[in-house]
Amino acid sequence: MEEFGCLINGEWVAPNGTEDVLSPYTGEPVFRVSIAKEAQVTTAIDAAAKAFESWSQSPAHERSRLLHRTCALLEERAEDLARTIALEAGKPIRDARGEVARAVQTFRFAAEGAKNIYGETIPMDAAVGSEKRVGITFRQPIGVIAAISPFNFPLNLVAHKVAPALATANTVVLKPASVTPVTALKLGEILGEAGFPAGVVNVLVGSGAEVGNPMVESKKVAMVTFTGSPPVGMGIRDRAGMKKVILELGSNSATIVHEDADLAAAARAIAKGAFAFAGQVCISVQRVLVHEAVQQRFLSLFLPLVQALKVGDPLGEDIDVGPMIDRAAADRGSAWIQEALKGGARALMEGKQEGSLVWPWVLADVKRDMKIVCEEAFAPVATVQTYKTFDEAIALVNDSQFGLQAGVFTNNVNLAFQAGRQIHTGGVIINDTSNYRADHMPYGGLKLSGMGREGIRYTMEEMTEVKLVAFNLA
Fold it and tell me: 29-60: buried (b, 16+ CB within 10 Å) or exposed (e) per residue?
């Protein structure tokens, strides 16, 4: 069994004993990691603050070179990283390989972005009395970034926090999810091998109480970037004080299938988008809204595709749906489904549960106040509702406390633009599902889905401060 310490100031330390990382599929230990306490948090933050003094002065070409070197090392170790993701997160190996490929691309976007951090000139003479003045702006790194990442994308969502921080000459203290820490620890190894100086990236494994909270509350931390649940995110926002905060907090995402849509394309995309990684994706298709005129045709295409999905061992090359992250998560998802059925919902596709494995469910006749509709299910379940008019469909999408992304299938460009204007989410995806994401696009939500934006250039802007220098030429 591979064992890992915590990465602090370029060294691997194991001061407080170890814990096993369990396979979501078998429940057996697959890795062993060292656990940090508050004392190690202080040491790591101090190291990051010290490293920032020199790293913040590093030239853009050097940061770009190191990030490109990271890409090369990620590609060299792609299969090991994919297997690690499959073992500790339960993600099917084909999807795990896809996540590694995306992480390479994310770091490559950051490597390119490091050379393109621009300021602007300001027309100071636009103001009366400033006729003889010239202004310029430039972006400066802000300091130590506290990054707290989730279990569902243990490499690429770490990359979305670490890569832009390094591109903008900030330093990082990272706390990966306690159930999937090894992928992030292996990334820490790679970053060290790529040549990033000691203290620039530090990786700590531990609980939110003993590691996460001290990171958030430290006066030496300039920003907190977090992906996870709304209650935890709101707690972070409240404790962060005057720090910058980026929060990506999830959704109960909807996808509209209008009467003029390509139904076959919609069915294929939704069958994938609702059940990828057992529905444990923030933008997973949870609510399918179908025009009443095409409901039966859509279901005749959609349900056989769901039925054909293969469930099982995430290391299997033909597996589409692996286990949920643990038995408790599977039990919660199944309980919400059964609660909906008792409340009048009807199963169009009936799944089952075996341990942490949950087979896909499709529910109809659901009500807006059912947990499986109005909360974030984070499970392999999709609900199907019908509507009469496009305005009604938009109202159904917006009838949510969340607002991360939505999908719309229509061949009417006017309706597409109407959706783009009127749907209250951070992203509206036309002719694809809510769970489409490219790693350079702006990504983030409204309402309980969070604040701030990821997507490399947009995160780089969040992780820098605009400095104005004004010259009096009189």
Answer: ebbebbbbeeebbebbbbbbbbbbeebeebee
Q: Are residues 239 and 376 in the same domain?
A: no
- The amino acid that residue 49 corresponds to is A
| Other residues' Cβ atoms within 10 Å of the Cβ of residue 26 | 14
Alpha carbon distance 383, 405 (integer Å): 17
Q: What tokens appear for 21 in the block?
A: 């990382």
Sort strands 254-257 and 201-203 into parallel, antiparallel or unpaired.
unpaired
- For residues 215 and 202, what is the distance between their CA atoms, to the nearest angstrom? 12
Q: Is 278 left (phi over 0), alpha (psi -120 to 50) or beta?
A: left
pLDDT of residue 42: 98
- In the chain, the number of structural domains is 2
Predicted pLDDT at 16 = 87
**Same domain, yes or no, for 456 and 329?**
no
**Do 393 and 308 fall into the same domain?**
yes
Give the pLDDT score at 1.
Answer: 87
CB 51 within 8 A of CB 200: yes
Report the CATH number that the domain containing residue 7 is assigned in CATH: 3.40.605.10
Q: How many CB atoms lie within 10 A of CB 126?
A: 8
At residue 421, the pLDDT reads 98
466 and 436 inside one domain: no
Same domain, 454 and 357: no
d(CA 384, CA 345): 10
pLDDT attached to residue 15: 81
pLDDT at 239: 96
How far is the C-alpha of 303 from the C-alpha of 305, rounded, in Å? 5
pLDDT value at residue 367: 97
Q: Give me the DSSP letters along 228-279.
A: S-HHHHHHHHHHSTTSEEEEE-----EEEE-TTS-HHHHHHHHHHHHHGGGG
CA angle 332, 333, 336 (to 5 degrees): 85
List the catalytic residues.
Answer: 248, 282
pLDDT digits (tens, 9 = 90+) for 429-445: 999 999 999 999 999 99
Domain that holds residue 404: 254-440
The whole-model pTM stands at: 0.97
Whichever domain contains 306, its CATH number is 3.40.309.10
Which burial class, exposed, middle or buried, applies to 203 when counting CB atoms under 10 A from its CB (0-12, 13-18, 19+)?
Answer: buried
- Segments of the chain with pLDDT less than 50: none
For residues 210 and 278, state if they share a domain.
Answer: no
